[in-house]
Amino acid sequence: MIKKLALHSLWILLLAAGSAAAELKVAVLDTQRALVESEEAKELLAQAAEELQAEEASVKTLGESIMAIQEKLQTDGEVMSPTEQRKLQKEIEDKQIDYQFQVNKLQKEVNDRRQELLQQMVPKIDTVLKDLIEVEGYDLIMERSQLRYVNSKHDITRKVTEKLNERQ
Q1: Looking at the predicted structure, is the pLDDT value of residue 10 above 80?
Q2: Residue 43 lies in a domain
């Protein structure tokens, strides 16, 4: 008798949980994609790329210079004196140190710009999400990157991007 009562109680709980879950309105958001695809973020990223273009060109030129010296050492190394070889090798090493420094500096600058973009856009995304939660009645919004599989009908990334573009 007790086993039957426990089994019936379990079925009732499962049915109640199933109906409660059916009422739960869940959405998934790829925040990074929503940001990057917004018009404002595209403009800010293009502006940052334009501002960093000179530094990127400098890094590229230095890399090409290193390659040219390495090729020269490789092709003419056999006919060079040991002193000349050491001089070219030292020049390569010095330029590689400078190259690595410039690459790291550029990467830091790019990361700083991304961080600025996030700080600038997060309040806007929060406002858009609050509006969508009120209008659509979502109970739960989860980040897409934290999930293994999501049915596309739950993805609100495009809606968020559209709302961001409307607010611009």
Answers
A1: no
A2: yes
- Within a domain: residue 13? no
The string of pLDDT tens digits covering residues 16-41 is 555 555 588 899 999 989 988 999 98
| Assigned token pair, 65 | 């210079």
pLDDT at 45: 87
Domain assignment present for 65: yes
Report the C-alpha gap between 107 and 98 in whole angstroms.
14
Could you tell me the residue range of the domain that residue 75 belongs to? 25-167
Residue type, 19: S
Q: Which residue has the tokens 């609050």?
A: 130
Give the integer Cα–Cα distance in Å for 100 and 20.
57
List Cβ neighbours of 149 (8 Å cut-off, separation of 6 or more).
none
- The answer to whether residue 161 is domain-embedded is yes
pLDDT of residue 11 exceeding 60, the answer is: no
CB 11 within 8 A of CB 138: no
Spatial distance between the Cα atoms of 57 and 61, rounded to a whole number of angstroms? 6
Q: How far is CA 85 from the centre of its chain?
A: 44
What distance in Å separates the CA atoms of residue 71 and residue 59, rounded to the nearest whole number? 18
Structural domain count, the chain:
1
**Whole-structure pTM value:** 0.65
Alpha helices in 24-156 (DSSP H): 31-36, 39-76, 82-136
